[in-house]
Amino acid sequence: MKQAHKNLTTWVLAAIFFGALFGLSSPELAIKMQPLGTYFTDVVKLFITPIIFLTISLGISGMGSVKQVGRVGGKALLYFEIVTTLALLIGVVVTWIIQPGSGVTTMVAQSSEASNYTTSAETFCFWSFIKSSLIIQVLLFSILFGIFLNKYKHRDNIKNKLVFVSKYVFKALHFIMLFAPIGAFGGIAYTVGKYGITSLIPLAKLMITIYITMALFVFVILGYILKYYKISIFKFLNYIKEELLIVLGTSSSESALPSLMEKLEKMGCSKSVVGLVVPAGYSFNLDGTTIYLSMAVLFLAQVYNVDLSWAQMGTIICVLMITSKGAAGVTGSGFIVLASTLSAVKVIPIEGLALLLGVDRFMSEARSITNFIGNGVATIVIANSEKEFDSTKMKNAFHKEIYEYDTDEI
Questions:
Q1: 179 CB contacts (<8 Å, ≥6 apart)?
Q2: How far is CA 53 from CA 32, 282, 319, 328, in A?
């Protein structure tokens, strides 16, 4: 058992608490803390592409056949579509029953910030996403390079060099994670300082509804999926608690992506499955974002008293099934995709986006955490289906701390 003062979880949790306290007591100064969160996230993102490349390349090169690559990818995409569609339907049903938008005033005028979102919304999900999604580009290149290594006769020399580089990349990542409490403090202080607690009161019903829905999705839907494989959702969440707190503090699931990939390998998922499923999931398996989008659209319809027909509901669901796949795991992307969805549907006033500006950052945290957990569960499911999951490693990982983010290990 690690001492409390050496436990990264303790420090991140304390940073989140004091960040919120600082945001309430000194809002103007707290807003200036934003760079602490954004800089930390930006530095961690530097590790994403090399880790994806190294993990996938080494994983595929060690696979028995190229057919296995296609099989794993096919299973992952099928799983993503089923689970995200289920998340979408859950969001629609809960919002339809609770009606969080009923009685909410639309006195908030459209701000310039909302206009900036809507201006770029039409190009975000299609051309812009294809052109600028570095993760997808690196993922495709890594798969091709891994297939090349798999067939290359003298691949051992290249693989040994990649393993050497991978070792020090992860060591560098562990060192950077020591600064996670600073990043979490900056992110929370900025959020509370800028929007304050009072800005949440008019939209508290929507926030509570979304948080409850996402909690039900995680503990019921994802919980039962893991239960099928005799894995406890609570033990899994406890295992990745440090990463969850980092995501909570930074509102970005990407900030913990490299660490999640490493921990999934430590708990028994094969390197090849982790390398394929996790990066792909950050574009195609965004459960939290999907729930948020469905609930936000219906919330605005209720606010503006738009009586949606069954045909319009079906259209919205179909549009969301497409637009939600273009939301990368970056802070604020869900809001942009929401704008693009409203633009495509053309039934609900797009000015309603201004209502969500004050709480979007807070809901972004719920989206990111749900996305993060969902991708971890997806990897475990695909690894089990491929019989590339070591339950012994999982038991060891759940019953003792595999590694520590302290200076003794670096």
A1: 40, 43
A2: 35, 15, 32, 18
CB-based contact 251:187 (threshold 8 Å) = yes
* Contact by Cβ (8 Å): 101, 206: yes
Q: Contact 24/192 with Cβ under 8 angstroms?
A: yes
pLDDT tens readout for residues 292-306: 888 888 888 887 787
**Contact yes or no for 189/25 (Cβ under 8 A):** no
- State the Cα–Cα distance between residues 12 and 243, nearest whole angstrom: 10
Mean of the per-residue pLDDT values of the chain? 75
Residues 6+ apart with CB under 8 A from 180: 8, 11, 12, 40, 242, 245, 246, 249, 405
261 vs 129, which has greater pLDDT? 261
Residues in the chain, total: 410
The pTM for the full model equals 0.68
Q: Which two tokens stand for residue 180?
A: 């996670």
What pLDDT digit, counting tens, does each position of 226-281 carry? 999 999 999 999 999 888 888 887 777 777 888 888 899 999 998 888 888 888 78
What percent of the chain is helix, strand and coil (3-state, nearest 5)? 80, 0, 20
Tokens of 279: 């990066």
| Distance, CA of 79 to CA of 322 (rounded, Å) | 16
From CA 20, how far away is CA 280, in angstroms rounded?
33
Instruction: Assess contact for 364 and 331: CB atoms under 8 A.
Output: yes
CA dihedral angle for residue 371, residue 383, residue 55, residue 324, rounded to 10 degrees: -30
Residue-level pLDDT at 178: 82
DSSP of 388-408: -B-HHHHHHHHHS-----STT
**CA angle (243, 376, 222) in 5-degree steps:** 115
Question: Across-strand partners of 281?
Answer: none
Distance, CA of 98 to chain centre: 26
Backbone torsions φ then ψ of 3, nearest 5 degrees? -65, 145
Q: How many CB atoms sit inside 10 A of residue 82's CB?
A: 10
Is 62 in contact with 272 (CB distance < 8 Å)? yes
Residues 173 and 303: their CA atoms lie apart, in Å, by 45
